Amino acid sequence: MDDSGRAGAFGSAEQIRVARAAAAAAPHAAALMDQHLGDHDELLPTMYFDALGVWYLAAWRRRDVDREQFAQAGAVAAVLDAEFKADPQVENAIAVGFVEMFTYLPASEQAAAATLPPVLRAEYAAMAAWRPG
Cα(19)–Cα(102) distance, rounded to whole angstroms? Predict the structure, then answer.
């Protein structure tokens, strides 16, 4: 994993710390971090959390045939869950980057959100229930 991700215009120091902790939780998450840094030349936490969400969903879809990948995705989600309330910028980046995509899934895949850890699952439920007033 490259060390070029520093706090800057697109990420706070706390967001970057959490992104690095998520990357350290699973080999595939580390590979996604390397790919992200190669594509963007810097760590963009919200975009990285989105890539983790896409991967989590892909692992959920294949959970019956690749349990190890889903376990790794669960380990990464556990890091995000534990760090969700670290500060408002971290909460926003994880909510927008990782959790929000679950609200757009077709009904046939909404069960994926039920496998999220409790804090992320609660955030998903709040997002899914929100209606413009």
Answer: 19
